[in-house]
TrEMBL record, chains A, B:
GO terms for biological process: 'de novo' pyrimidine nucleobase biosynthetic process; pyrimidine nucleotide biosynthetic process. Transmembrane segments: none annotated. One of its GO terms (cellular component) is cytoplasm. PROSITE patterns: DIHYDROOROTASE_1, DIHYDROOROTASE_2. InterPro entries: DHOdimr (IPR004721), Dihydroorotase_CS (IPR002195), Metal_Hydrolase (IPR032466). This is Dihydroorotase. One of its GO terms (molecular function) is dihydroorotase activity. The keyword Zinc applies. Signal peptide: none annotated. It comes from the Eukaryota. Keywords: Hydrolase, Metal-binding, Pyrimidine biosynthesis, Zinc. Gene3D superfamilies: Metal-dependent hydrolases (3.20.20.140). The lineage of its organism: Eukaryota, Fungi, Dikarya, Basidiomycota, Agaricomycotina. The keyword Thylakoid does not apply.
Length: 313, 313
């Protein structure tokens, strides 16, 4: 029996939320299940990851859940951060500092309002080669303007794109809280710009899933004056989902670059190990949910057909 | 004790959903409670109001609930409608025909896809002076483009604006299903265009609340792949709400034109009777909900401060 397959070397998710407690126990295992062996881990916990010690403790917790994934740890940019702490973090293997505009996403109440106060931090980051010449990543672009801005900039500026923003437009999340995330999906022309930049194989645009699990009751219900939680959860189906989407707009040949090569090159994490193979399928349906203990999550595309599955080794 | 008051002659809501059954019993009484004595009633029931007989039956039901309001009845434009039925409807006091683009709002599955098939209907409507020279109303404009389009057209084309679209922008309904309605609220510049056209006192732009009650469980919950109900409910607080909003952008002097004079003139329903007086207040809070029997509704601005209240006669 013949089948269509495609192989990808060491898929890497350069923006993922692995949470805390029982939810973390559930979703951290989904990184590998979704085909990924590297997770660039977001620090917006409660409280946020603000120093090296907290980052290393969190990394230990994630490794205890699934030691087969490489976790790249990050710090939350806050007034407490010092140039000395940057140097300490670099020595301990921390790879980035995340800047959260205040109040725009989950646990961003401590986000920044002005960058000027952080100039000494950025200088220290550059000095320790945390990024050679301070690399900057625009996370999850959703507009044509963002794509064009990043394209116009030099080699130290890159951009992550989520899987779900390749699929959704504003009509898909209007009243449908499960598709509601921040940044919100925009208009068809914006989605087209995201698809086009992937299709052209631009090396500074790569996957960061922004996979963001929330308890189902926080996703499904809103009360007057209170929004439901923002976030779309893609981890357990991530590689098959991205393959399905890229195939839908004729960019399947760019899969490896988008989900592995481009991001790894930008962050200096190249590898030739860890091949993952996908098989084209016609009757595969995404799970309605996953549970573990008192935690459960509902994935993007729950109950929908998906065009690819990971071949078990 | 002094107080600030403002009086309006015979407020008229030129676009309101009064529903059926127990929900209708509850919300029809809110027209008068909200300060209005004329309701231009939408025909998108289940099944829709498609002929004169159904319109008159529905009117009788509404009058039984509250005989103090003048109900202007409309038909749902569908392939069943004939030029003869238009003449019959006119003779029976029906005042308009509503065209629903298919599938875009509540109970619009039978909406239209192309206007050409209806040209004979429009001709008959013009002949019977249902509108002299076929007046057309763009319902609930939400964009600057819509405002500019209507302004550019002649005296037979008017436009309704809801109260809530004077308040909301996209961020207010993102994840907040209680503020989700169709058309969705757009960007700050679009809201500014709606406010500006009211502030200039343009006579072809007037209030149509689009007040659209839904059972709370249909507003608060969405499941994957299924949107919650679209609609914002403003009837029981309508006149105080509009006064509060117009005051917020310096257009309180245009209140009477916007909520009564302009729409009544366009539809040929002028009157000098029925003055309603509002009093400025500082500690008034909008009810969290209203109930009657098994029906309940949650209003826009539930639990929020509102700046005006109707003076009881």
């Amino acid at each position: 029996m013949s089948s269509t397959t495609i192989s990808v070397t060491a898929p890497a998710d350069f923006h993922v939320h692995l949470r805390q407690g029982s939810l973390s126990e559930l979703v951290t295992k989904h990184v590998r299940q979704g085909g990924f062996s590297l997770a660039y881990v977001m620090p917006n916990l409660t409280p946020p990851i603000r120093n090296t010690e907290e980052a290393l403790l969190y990394k230990t917790q994630l490794q205890a859940i699934d030691p087969s994934v490489e976790y790249l740890m990050t710090l939350y940019l806050s007034p407490e951060l010092t140039p000395d702490e940057i140097r300490k973090a670099k020595a301990a293997g921390v790879v980035g500092v995340k800047s959260y505009p205040r109040g725009v996403t989950t646990n961003s109440d401590g986000g920044i309002e002005s960058y000027e106060v952080y100039y000494p931090i950025f200088e220290a980051m550059e000095q320790v080669d945390m990024f050679p010449r301070l690399r900057i990543v625009l996370e999850h672009a959703t507009t044509r303007a963002a794509v064009e801005c990043v394209k116009s900039l030099g080699p130290t500026v890159a951009c992550t794109i989520t899987a779900h923003h390749l699929d959704l437009v504003v009509d898909d999340w209007a009243g449908q809280s499960w598709n509601f995330c921040k940044p919100v999906a925009k208009f068809p022309d914006d989605r087209l710009a995201l698809r086009e930049v992937i299709k052209e194989g631009h090396p500074r645009f790569f996957l960061g899933s922004d996979s963001a699990p929330h308890p189902p009751e926080k996703k499904s219900v809103s009360s007057p004056g209170h929004a439901c939680a923002a976030g779309v959860y893609t981890s357990p189906i991530l590689l098959p989902l991205v393959a399905t989407l890229l195939e839908s707009f004729g960019a399947l040949d760019k899969l490896e670059g988008f989900v592995s090569g481009f991001g790894r090159a930008f962050y200096g994490r190249e590898t030739t190990e860890g091949k993952v193979t996908l098989r084209k399928v016609s009757d595969k349906v995404v799970n309605e949910s996953w549970s573990l203990g008192d935690a459960s999550v509902v994935p993007f595309w729950a109950g929908k057909n998906i065009g690819w599955e990971i071949v078990k080794e």
